[in-house]
Amino acid sequence: TGRVCHFKLVLLGDTAVGKSCLVVRFVRDEFFEFQEPTIGAAFLTQSVNLENATVKFEIWDTAGQERYRSLAPMYYRGAAAAIVVYDITNKESFNGAKSWVKELQRRGDPNVVIALAGNKADLHTKRRVEYEEAQKYAEENCILHMETSAKNATNVKDLFREIGEVMYVI
Ligand code: GTP
Ligand code: MG
């Protein structure tokens, strides 16, 4: 379908929020209960077909553990899009996500498209971050926001598709 656009996309967020699981769900449609913590970063690609174009994402899945924090700028530099992930059952990870958004807005590409993903939406009985709170934050900061579940696949394709649509328009 029409032209093919290549976009560099980076995932950022605290350790264990589910960045790798989201990518594995998107790229291979699989989920592992015991996904290993990422070391350094992982690179994967996947495409989404839009009405008039194909968007090919070149995805950098970064490591959230503190010891890797200083590597992050290497991965978000030049990224056209960023997915900042938090875990809806972990308030601290939402604070971490906000600091990633701030850092991206200060030091990332001036036109970077940022999406905030509240992952583990399947664990709604353990929820600690209200949807409305995150949505309000996203609106105030002009970024996308969606709750996802890598485990049951809720909103995972939609998240990448929505980013692709925004980038294609830009
Ligand atoms: P780092 O690589 O250390 O930064 O962590 P990460 O953000 O990549 O987390 P990872 O994808 O490794 O996920 C950590 C664990 O969270 C996984 O082993 C899963 O058990 C769990 N997990 C991830 N996504 C979901 C989800 O949507 N729902 C539930 N219930 N668990 C999830
Ligand atoms: Mg990981």
TrEMBL record:
UniProt KW Nucleotide-binding keyword: yes
Entry keyword set: Nucleotide-binding
Domain of life: Eukaryota
Listed GO MF terms: GTP binding; GTPase activity
Keyword Nucleotide-binding: yes
Record-annotated membrane-spanning stretches: none
Entry protein name: Uncharacterized protein
Organism: Chrysophaeum taylorii
